[in-house]
Amino acid sequence: MTTLPVIFLAAFIAGLMLAVFAMLHGVEHTRPNRTRAPSPFFNLPVPAIAAFAIGFGAVGYPLASRTRLPVWIILAIAIASGALAISGMITLLARWALRGVVTSSTDEQQEIQGQLAVVTQTIAPHTTGEISYEHLGAKVKFPARALSAKPLVAGAEVVIDRIEEGVAFVEEWSVVEQRL
After folding, report:
1. Which domains does the chain have, with CATH numbers?
2. How many Å apart are CA 180 and CA 172, to the nearest integer?
3. What digits encode the pLDDT tens for the residues 42-95?
């Protein structure tokens, strides 16, 4: 085995590892300004590097190990493939993963479903209390009611189940955690 296929294979494996790391740990901590909505073009260096490495390695390895093309042509094709992988990742993020980041309040209410929050005003059965959570670096407070008949005291961790008429219906995190 020559050096070039090993380089492509290492790039491919490193790209997969970076992609898994980004999937497990997220990429929000890499954004310097979390108060603004994320951009698929400028705020995701780890996924962009992972996409490039996967595209570069996945195309370069078969070319280097199975063809007799000159090294400079193999490198050019592999680099172009890495660039295409980045553009595909950006397109995927722009059209699917980050769709509607600048949204109406109805879309925003749907996006906070499943959000972890903290009770700030006790939620008694059949009465409205208040929860708070962080969204894009800002603390958001929201009126809330409990799904169960059990009161939720201030400081309890809850998960937002749904939004109806501007009121969040929440469930205790411990109950949700047991189902997971």
Report:
1. 3-97 (no CATH), 105-179 (2.40.50.140)
2. 13
3. 556 778 889 999 999 999 999 999 999 999 999 999 999 999 999 888 887 777
